[in-house]
Amino acid sequence: MPREKFKTLTEQMFYILLCLKEECCGMDILDRVPEMTNGRVNVGSGTLYNLLEQFLAEEMIRETKVEGRKRSYIITPKGSDRLREEYDRITAQASDYEKLFGGK
Description:
This protein is an alpha+beta fold.
């Protein structure tokens, strides 16, 4: 049985959606993700633009502006809900770890 699309998010997916809390374009996202994660997470441009198209198709983001080839996006309520679900999943994992290993 195939995995349900966006059931879980990769780190790149998570941070792309997180960046889109505020309207921004792809180049902004390419700059913001490494800055936000102190270089721990990077998104390649091919991955970014592929995911933006998929998020658009799933109505998790919407296009806000087109200036030549530059396109800007913002997260939709559906995308915000999915991002929150992923946050809850990650924090539940962290909580399970802390129960077993006592935190750091």
